Amino acid sequence: MRSYSQLLLHVYGNRLADDQPVALPDEITLQAIWFNGLFGRTFTTTDGRSVVVRQFGFWNRTAGPDFLHAAVEIDGKTHSGPLELDTHASDWENHGHDTNPVFNDVILHVIFRDSASHHFTRSENHSNVPKVVIPEFLVKEALSQPRHTSATANIGRCFKPLEHMSAGAIEQVMLAAAKHRCAMKAKHHQLIHDTHGKDQSLWIALAQTLGYRPNKQAMAQLAQRMPIHYLRQHTDLAPPLLFGIAGFLHPDIHEQAPIDSQRWLEELWNTWWKHRGEHELSEDRSVQWTRSGIRPINHPQRRLAALGHIAQHWPSFRKLSGQTNNLIEWLENLRDPFWSHHYTLTSKRSDKQLALVGKDRIRDLLINHLLPVRIIQNDETAWNDYIKLPAPATSESISRVSTRLFGQRSDKKEFLKKAWQHQALLQIYHDFCLEDTSDCDSCPFPEQMHKLSQ
């Protein structure tokens, strides 16, 4: 069969060129995606000048422009200073940047939605600030958002052709989808690597993995604000800095904890207090955590504890990131005097030993980040490791797409045993089920499968 990429091109053409505007996330999320370099580095200003981002700078933790110490090249001339990112062109004036002298030195204004009416990006001292509008196709590519967030868990039209296809033929389709997904994830990781280097790209991947769905973005933003190169220079400060920046520490936290945790928590706060002036985030830039509906073992404080623990052993983790089995063993055996027996900073001690990093998180790190990068780099063992990984727990999305594709097919479970199979089904679900607006009636996937079944 044709490659999965060719299949998508055949049935959709260039979907990025359609006229439907993408739904933008909140501004902090856009800033995080921008900072990772996922919108690219080369642009054109609204007055036609070429722009190349040479240095994305650093997140601002207080009031003022969003990023500090950035460097951009405009028509061949390098400019250094702060950079501001807004959702709409009118935000520059609506947010009062045009009357605030703190914004006088902004070297570039980045926006995602221009306006039919003309909005000037001028500083308080009446200087024009170069403005870039991120093209819609770059936004769609970076966000990779399908038209819908879920599809009904009913047997779809694609069940009919798949019902008569051999297991081997179905596996070939799924392998093609898995390879496509793998290549996309490797490209995503490479963009961050090109922007911030190997260690930081690995650090962000780890943070995203530990955050999982509810706190994926929050953990990634935290990893951006506290880069691994800084923590490597201040190893002992990793836990208090991460918990402090996350907003989980306060002066009387130890008083809310059981007696056996109070001294440890007081020391944690005292260490953070000495450094908070340099690192604490203002309220409007604080990390937003999801805590409701999460099992205690997945509490964001536990996830953050695992991130901090690994930061303190970064050379080992970095070395093992290219060794699948050794990494699995190392992560499964991580122990921490406090977190191996506590769910949160102030919870009672659990007699049960708690895994610092669970098996599903380890597989997620491998299948979504580490192995795709190694595969794209032609690591001879990476693909074998990829297809051998056992499947994680069946998610709601996997349950829905397997029902839509396989219905009551007797060998249905055979397509759900490995992690790569879940990746393939998620890609098909994303590209077809969630892109379809006809409740299956006009989806092109069944016809493509029908041709293969003949």
Descriptive notes:
- This protein is 48% helix and 8% strand.
- It is an alpha/beta fold.
- It has two domains: 127 residues, no CATH class; 304 residues, no CATH class.
- Strands 1, 2, 3, 4, 5, 6 and 7 form a seven-stranded mixed beta sheet that branches.
- Helix 7 packs across helix 14.
- The two termini are 13 Å apart.
- The relative contact order is 0.12.
* Total domain count: 2
| Distance from first to last alpha carbon | 13 Å
**Tertiary shape:** globular
Into which percentage range does the β-strand content fall? Answer: 5-15%
pLDDT averaged residue by residue = 93
Structural classification: alpha/beta
Rg estimate, integer Å: 24 Å
Poorly predicted segments = none
The string of secondary-structure elements, in order, is HHEEEEEHEEHHHHHHHHHHHHHHH
The total of beta strands comes to 7
Largest sheet geometry: 7 strands, mixed
- The number of helical segments is 18
Helix content: 40-55%
Topology:
Blueprint lengths: L3 H9 L14 H9 L6 E3 L5 E6 L2 E2 L7 E8 L2 E9 L5 H4 L13 E4 L19 E3 L2 H8 L15 H5 L3 H30 L1 H28 L2 H6 L4 H8 L13 H21 L20 H12 L2 H7 L3 H9 L26 H18 L5 H7 L7 H11 L12 H15 L11 H9 L1
Parallel strand pairs: 5-6, 6-7
Antiparallel strand pairs: 1-2, 2-4, 3-4, 4-5
Helix pairs in contact: 6-7, 6-14, 6-17, 7-11, 7-14, 9-10, 9-11, 13-14, 14-15, 16-17
Write a compact overview of the structure shown.
The chain is of the alpha/beta class and 454 residues long.
Tag the structure with descriptive keywords.
7-stranded mixed beta sheet; alpha/beta
